[in-house]
Amino acid sequence: MLPQEIIRKKRDGAELSAQEIAFITRGITDGSLSEGQVAAFAMAVFFRNMTSAELTAMTLGLATSGVTLDWNETDLPGPILDKHSTGGVGDKVSLMLAPIVAACGGFVPMISGRGLGHTGGTLDKLSAISGYDVQPDIATFRKVVREVGCAIIGQTNDLAPADRRLYGVRDVTATVESIPLIVSSILSKKIAAGLDGLVMDVKCGSGAFCDTQPMADTLAAGLVYTANQAGLSTAALITDMDRVLGREVGNALEVMETVAYLKGEGVRDPRLHEVVMALAGEMLALGDLAPSAAAGRARAEAALEDGRAAEKFAQMVSALGGANDFMDQPARYLERAPAIRPCTAEHPGFVVGMNARDVGIAVVALGGGRAHADDAINPSVGLSEMIEIGTAVRPGSPLCVVHAASEADADEAIARVRRAIRIGNLPPPAKPAVIDRVVIEELAG
């Protein structure tokens, strides 16, 4: 086969065979396709899309381009389950969800990523914990999953290497937004991880990649259908990202919120709790650890309330290099920003909405995210005590608390957050945290 002929075929809108796609993914992996050819293929897919058969073949080709984990040899007494989010602002759900599901009998080998752009990354949050190793070897990863029930780490070099190369090309060729390339990228890593079940959290709103409901519907449907076609039982929830999820944004701050949530300290943010419990219920049902998502949710609530989930998180942190007493003294192992200032309202009224993306950009500008992939992150900075939409304010009312490296940075963040939060005369209508649910039965019908 000639790569240029396959690229030409896709460029002209024809459907590629499974053999042609396998040839492309092998060429991406072993380097026999040049950077220009990989870029041309990505652009052809961007403009011409992929059929469901092509997408399944592409996903499996990327998934099998490197090591695929097989958990059968570890003889685990429960299902291998995972969740993936398309990214949002203040999204620390994975940190809460993995130990909850582990406490209910599931095993969660969660391979997560770092943040880029305005969305935070799960690995950056865990990297804020002193000593936590986000890049252990595969043997350690297996050991922690087997002994604790959950481990959250970064992608290893030998898992889906073709996807890593393809994503790097997409990132610099304006083809990141291609739905089929997004679907195959996400699912290839999950299939390589050897899962029995996967739940997708597809974010929708101003702080998400999918900023409209139709786009979120399309992505969720593509993920669920393709995953199931590839042999991975998958469901998806579409959740709201038109506002910050939870009360804290920033790596160390979100870890602190996670600890408080798992330990039951203070009042849990109701929208964050709804998303965590809804996803937990779906995961437990997919793994046959509950007869339904509702029953799974009840099991998850119990594991949270009796402290088993908090204990699983503590064990995971310790097993991956963190302190044994982290859950008892989290502030001791998390950096604190030197400049902490309130951001207050300038006008009276009600908080009617916020541009979550702009809130995320404010945190990036503080040093809590990356403008470029190799940027260093300041784990201590961010925003805490974010105001709820619908809250009545007057001049001087707190909108949030800014944690910054300097007073000048704090001033800039305050100005950004004030512009991102909209204040009007009437409270807005309520909007659910979980917007929709997508399962294979619905797609087949």
How would the blueprint of this fold be written?
Blueprint: H1 3-11, H2 18-30, H3 35-48, H4 52-63, E1 81-85, H5 93-103, E2 108-112, H6 122-127, H7 138-148, E3 150-154, H8 161-171, H9 179-192, E4 197-204, H10 213-229, E5 233-240, H11 251-263, H12 270-286, H13 293-305, H14 308-319, E6 339-344, E7 349-354, H15 356-368, E8 382-384, E9 392-393, E10 398-404, H16 407-420, E11 421-424, E12 434-438, H17 440-444
Helix pairs in contact: 1-3, 2-4, 2-8, 4-9, 4-10, 5-12, 5-14, 9-10, 12-13, 15-16
Description:
- The structure is a single chain.
- This protein has 3 domains: 3-48, Transferase, Pyrimidine Nucleoside Phosphorylase, Chain C (Transferase, Pyrimidine Nucleoside Phosphorylase, Chain A, domain 3, Up-down Bundle), CATH 1.20.970; 72-329 and 434-444, Nucleoside phosphorylase/phosphoribosyltransferase catalytic domain (Pyrimidine Nucleoside Phosphorylase, Chain A, domain 2), CATH 3.40.1030.10; 336-424, Pyrimidine nucleoside phosphorylase-like, C-terminal domain (Aldehyde Oxidoreductase, domain 3, Alpha-Beta Complex), CATH 3.90.1170.
- The two termini are 38 Å apart.
- The chain has helices at 3-11, 18-30, 35-48, 52-63, 93-103, 122-127, 138-148, 161-171, 179-192, 213-229, 251-263, 270-286, 293-305, 308-319, 356-368, 407-420, 440-444; strands at residues 81-85, 108-112, 150-154, 197-204, 233-240, 339-344, 349-354, 382-384, 392-393, 398-404, 421-424, 434-438.
- The chain is globular and about 70 Å long.
- The longest helix has 17 residues, at 213-229.
- It has 17 helices and 12 strands.
- The model has no long low-confidence stretch (mean pLDDT 94).
- Strands 1-4-5-12 form a 4-stranded mixed beta sheet, with helices on both faces. The protein has a 3-stranded antiparallel beta sheet with strand order 6-10-8. It has a 3-stranded antiparallel beta sheet with strand order 9-7-11.
- The chain is α/β, with parallel strands linked by helices and 445 residues long.
